[in-house]
TrEMBL record, chain A:
Keywords: Oxidoreductase, Thiamine pyrophosphate
Start and end residues of each Dehydrogenase E1 component domain: 74-368
InterPro entries named in the record: DH_E1 (IPR001017), PDH_E1_Alpha_Subunit (IPR050642), THDP-binding (IPR029061)
Organism: Apatococcus lobatus
Task performed by this protein: The pyruvate dehydrogenase complex catalyzes the overall conversion of pyruvate to acetyl-CoA and CO(2). It contains multiple copies of three enzymatic components: pyruvate dehydrogenase (E1), dihydrolipoamide acetyltransferase (E2) and lipoamide dehydrogenase (E3).
EC number: 1.2.4.1
Protein name in the entry: pyruvate dehydrogenase (acetyl-transferring)
Catalyses which reaction(s): N(6)-[(R)-lipoyl]-L-lysyl-[protein] + pyruvate + H(+) = N(6)-[(R)-S(8)-acetyldihydrolipoyl]-L-lysyl-[protein] + CO2
GO biological process: pyruvate decarboxylation to acetyl-CoA
Subunit details: Tetramer of 2 alpha and 2 beta subunits.
One Pfam match: E1_dh
TrEMBL record, chain B:
Claim: GTP-binding is one of the keywords in the record: no
Domain Transketolase-like pyrimidine-binding stretches: 33-208
Protein name: Pyruvate dehydrogenase E1 component subunit beta
Cofactor(s) the protein requires to work: thiamine diphosphate
Catalytic activity: N(6)-[(R)-lipoyl]-L-lysyl-[protein] + pyruvate + H(+) = N(6)-[(R)-S(8)-acetyldihydrolipoyl]-L-lysyl-[protein] + CO2
Length: 411, 358
């Protein structure tokens, strides 16, 4: 059903109160009590997928009010988190590298709607939103940026190295392209254990020409590994446009014998649909490649204004036409689940939540001295390491496996 | 009894000081094992012991191993656990790194460590550093193994020694076995170790046989990682080396003994974390040290030993520490030049004597 017809149906339904199009269950205002009833399922059309050596899934996506609100709130929090991270850096509380993903929130949110935490995931250094999608907290992100102990890496990693082992999120990888063979290895482990889960291996258009990716594709395909490769194509590898870096910027076709889908990455529902399809495909038929067409509003990193290689008009144009948060907001408003003012109030609450998280994170201390040498090895063997000069005491490592990985890695 | 038959009465007296005799007497079923079979049996036993262990690399399966180290293992354990890969080191090393993150225990074979340069980002930035960057939550119980250093007539691209490169990096454990006992004990320990281990073998030694006893052949025989071995006790000079150079140093010690010099031979075994204590204690005893390696001298592994000795027991030295290393040239092919590029036993003897002031 065309979107315009849906809109008409929405309006009609709201006005009439009793008239319902066939696909609608009910239309209630945001203020009404949501808890008692099953959440209203609707179907929507998304931008059609493009397939490479695979029949693309239908572009009619099923969702419901609860899910949409969840996605909207999560994306909004992610957006605020990235903008707050920018401020932290300007206040010199965050240091080193900072790669923000505001504009790209539709991808992690759509992905997690299709997966569970027993599926594995690995990402590049633009990992804050992916980490939050994997169940990490914003407070933890802020703490890690400031190098404090309540960060997921206890301040030892920084912005590019966020991990969540319990939810099978393996980083946060700083070297462009390195994560693709590693993610393939995560899929290898799923297959080895025959556990019915997949590995989502995410990289950017900047990485998409790396040789090791094609080495990984080859082995994933030979061995039928349950890996979903995801190219977050934000159209710029640092400052180089995809068409300048790639002879073929149709990244979803670059797997050759690995089938691929082009996805509107600014629409979290399209992302969800593609990921549901891809997970099923990977488990039954082996690797598949998803190209998420997305966009970052910030430059490559905090030191990049993002304006020397693209126009400000382009950035604002995309923000106007395709912003992932605005898109879901419109759906919510059109279905009468809230009006603009109610959402503004909600956003104010969410902003306050983010600010509170930052203040909490600021209270977290820097890591203690033991963290300096605690995690060089799981089993330090009682070895003595050399300090910066021989007059100082040797660094004495503990003996025997210890730390968060001790149980998992010993036998 | 066997030793008596093998060596005769005079031989027995000569062997009285040696480790071999004590080993021979200890093990009632004394036998010999090649380095190849030592490695093969270690892999076999660890595959049997732990389902999470698997081997991955070029020609490890149907070819039976480029150097036959993995002979028979595909037949015994199947293609899931003995995995032939395409010739794509960066790719399969990264796959191993990821599988280890997920809790499997991969053994990644490099046909030689020269080819591992294509994968070195995965070894260092994925496997070595992730435990630290993740504050201990993501570990890498992985072994990277294969022949390292000079072979015979394989020229410059196939002859580099990577001991210095890997032993430089915190987060890695680096082992360099010498004999069959080392190969069994250290490889089994490496596979059981929860951290990433670079295991530097030597192609020339694969065919060499060494005596082993029932202890060494035991299914749970391991050697401690992080401990150097006093391979031969002595009191006049310390000879430090790893891998094949331990054999050279033992031969040099035998020759030096004829001239009344008692040389102590240290088998480093673990390049990282380095057992500085054993080396320094030996130098405190003998007051002189010669470090021997086949790798290049600049920033080489022996440079670290010399720095350590200077820093920790300078006052115990009666002569400057000496090094015998490979020559600073890419490895030539011609046999005469190749021989000139590498230390020989006679070089070790000559330098040891110089160190002793003879």
């Amino acid at each position: 059903m065309a979107l315009s017809t849906l809109k008409q149906a929405c309006q009609l339904s709201r006005l009439a109160g009793t008239l319902r199009p066939a696909i609608y269950l009910s239309a209630r205002g945001f203020a009404a009590e949501p808890a008692q009833e099953e959440s209203e399922t609707i179907t929507l059309e998304v931008n059609p997928f493009k397939g490479h050596k695979v029949e693309p899934p239908s572009n009619v996506v099923e969702t419901n009010k609860d899910e949409l609100f969840d996605m909207y709130k999560t994306m909004f929090l992610m957006r605020r988190m990235e903008l707050t991270a920018d401020q932290l850096y300007k206040q010199k509380l965050a240091r080193g590298f900072l790669h923000l993903a505001d504009g790209q929130e539709g991808v992690p949110v759509g992905m997690e709607a299709a997966l569970d935490f027993d599926d594995s995931m690995i990402q590049s250094y633009r990992d804050h939103c992916t980490y939050v999608g994997r169940g990490g907290t914003m407070k933890a992100v802020f703490a890690e940026l400031m190098g404090r102990v309540d960060g997921p890496a206890r301040g030892l990693g920084g912005s590019m190295h966020l991990y969540h082992r319990e939810h099978n999120f393996f980083g946060g990888v700083g070297i462009v392209g390195e994560q693709i063979p590693v993610g393939t290895g995560l899929g290898f482990a799923h297959q080895y254990r025959d556990d019915g889960h997949v590995a989502f291996t995410i990289y950017g258009d900047g990485a998409a020409n790396q040789g090791q990716i094609f080495e990984a594709f080859n082995m994933a395909a030979i061995w039928n590994l349950p890996v979903v490769y995801v190219v977050e194509n934000n159209h710029y590898g640092m400052g180089t446009a995809d068409s300048r870096a790639s002879k073929s910027p149709q990244y979803y076709t670059r797997g050759d014998y690995v089938p691929g889908l082009w996805v509107d990455g600014m629409d979290c529902l399209a992302v969800k649909q593609a990921c549901l399809f891809a997970k099923k495909h990977a488990l039954e038929n082996g690797p598949i490649l998803l190209e998420m067409d997305t966009y970052r509003y910030h430059g490559h990193s905090i030191s990049d204004p993002g304006s020397t290689y693209r126009t400000r008009d382009e950035v604002s144009g995309i923000r106007r036409a395709r912003d992932p948060i605005e898109h879901v907001k419109q759906i919510i408003i059109e279905h009468g689940w809230a009006d603009a003012n109610e959402l503004k109030r909600l956003e104010k609450e969410l902003k306050a939540q983010v600010n509170a998280d930052v203040e909490e994170a600021k209270k977290s201390p820097f890591p203690p001295e033991e963290d300096f040498y605690n995690n060089i090895y799981v089993d330090g063997l009682g070895a003595k390491l050399r300090p910066i000069e021989v007059g100082m005491d040797k660094i004495q490592l503990p003996k025997g496996p210890r730390g968060p990985s001790a149980d998992a890695s010993t036998h | 009894m066997q030793a008596l038959l093998q060596f005769g009465r005079n031989g027995l007296r000569q062997q009285a000081q040696s480790k071999y005799l004590s080993q021979a007497l200890r093990g009632y079923a004394s036998k010999e094992l090649t380095v190849r079979d030592a490695l093969n049996s270690a892999l076999d036993e660890e595959l049997a012991r732990d389902d999470r262990v698997f081997i991955m690399g070029e020609e490890v399966g149907e070819y039976q191993g480029a150097y036959k180290i993995t002979r028979g293992l595909l037949q015994k354990y199947g293609a899931k656990r003995v995995r032939d890969t395409p010739i794509t080191e960066a790719g399969f090393t990264g796959i191993g790194a990821g599988a280890a993150f997920a809790g499997l225990r991969p053994i990644v074979e490099f046909m030689t460590f020269n080819f591992a340069m294509q994968a070195i980002d995965q070894i260092i930035n994925s496997s070595a550093k992730t435990l630290y960057m993740s504050a201990g939550t993501i570990s890498s119980p992985i072994v990277f193994r294969g022949p390292n250093g000079a072979a015979a007539g394989v020229a410059a691209q196939h002859s580099q020694c990577y001991a210095a490169w890997y032993s430089h990096v915190p987060g890695l454990k680096v082992l360099a076995p010498y004999d069959a006992e080392d190969c069994r004990g250290l490889l089994k320990a490496a596979i059981r170790d929860p951290d990433p281990v670079v295991f530097l073998e030597n192609e020339i030694l694969y065919g060499s046989a060494f005596p082993v006893d029932d202890t060494i052949l035991g299914k749970d025989f391991t050697l401690p990682i992080g401990k150097a071995k006093v391979q031969r006790e002595g009191k006049d000079i310390t000879l430090v080396g790893f891998g094949k150079m331990v054999g050279y140093n033992l031969e040099a010690a035998k020759e030096l003994e004829k001239e009344g010099v008692s040389a102590e031979v240290i088998n480093v075994r673990t390049l990282k974390p380095l057992d500085r204590e054993t080396i320094v204690n030996s130098v405190r005893k003998t007051h002189r040290v010669v470090c021997v390696e086949e790798g290049w001298p600049q920033s080489g592994f022996t440079a670290e030993i010399v720095a350590t000795v200077n820093e920790e027991c300078f006052d115990d030295l009666d002569a400057p520490p000496e090094r015998v290393t490979g020559a600073e040239v890419p490895m030539p092919y011609a046999a005469n030049l190749e021989a000139a590029a590498l230390p020989q036993v006679k070089d070790v003897i000559r330098v040891a004597k110089r160190c002793l002031g003879r």
